[in-house]
User: What shape does this take?
Amino acid sequence: MTRQWLRVSVLSALCVSGLLAVSVLGLIFGTADIPWRDAFGYLWADLVGGVVTAADAADYRIVVDSRLPRVLSGALVGAGLSTVGLVVQAMVRNALADPYVLGISSGASVGATAVLLFGVFAGAGVYALPSAAFVGALAATAIVFAIARSPGGLTPLRLVLTGTALGYGFSALTTVLVFLAPAGDAARSVMFWLLGSLAATSWRTAGLMAAVVLMGLVVVAGLARQLNALAMGDEVSASLGLRASRFRMLLFVVAALMTGVMVSVCGAIGFVGLVVPHVARLLVGADHRRLVVVTPLIGAVFLVTADLLARTVIPPQELPLGAITAAVGVPVFLLLMRRRGTEAG
Assistant: This one.
């Protein structure tokens, strides 16, 4: 085993240990005060089919049906967003890119806003919000894809410019919908959703995200060598037998599907896809074969920790998750940028 892969193994073990630690804290702490012994007792009862008394039924439901799927969802979303950020940065060869630079989250926001303010898709019941957000994300993806595509295929510059321009356009449309809202309270719900939250997660949404995110991680891991070639430029990719335009289209579809599902459930959570890949590169280098192992683990630890802080900083209020990730992500990103600037002279 080389020194770099030994480092990857050690980091992976540390990340898994850290993820288990913050996950346990996420099960114990929250708005409701539940002793840790009782929390573990409820989990054990759920695993082995034990008996829970009627007096403990409410706390049991909080731990098993609310906190546990929420922690799992946080780990999945953190791993997924950070991996999509890694893919997008390689796809457009821009270190400042993240899953939202392509306008996908803005499209999802339009769909979610239409549900929250005007009751669109009301017939879908509890599935209305994720359905509308997912449709909005896919529609934005299709529009960006159609406009950015040229006779020469998809190029990084056209993707970034098209995604950025349409992202502003979708954001403006969301603002107009909020302005036209018939009820003022609904606008507050929209703003909270736009800043991201795991409060609406359940076993149903966790299962959906697990299927999509894990499938995406497997696909990206299998494309690590091609990502290395793409990151070196289209001409180098062509010399290695990789058709950059077609490969970029495949990555675009994978990134859009993963982002659309996650945003439809959790809202727009920023800075995970931007900052985590930079941290991973700092730790294991620029080789995507190592990055696809470390990046999702760091992202999972980061988002589960951020969600724990969002729930516990000012109880019983819950802070928007995007505010926590921004409070951590902005200084970390500026520090990394300053360090890289210093290294570059």
Summary: The mean pLDDT is 83. Residues 90 and 227 are 6 Å apart (CA to CA). The chain is about 75% helix and 0% strand.
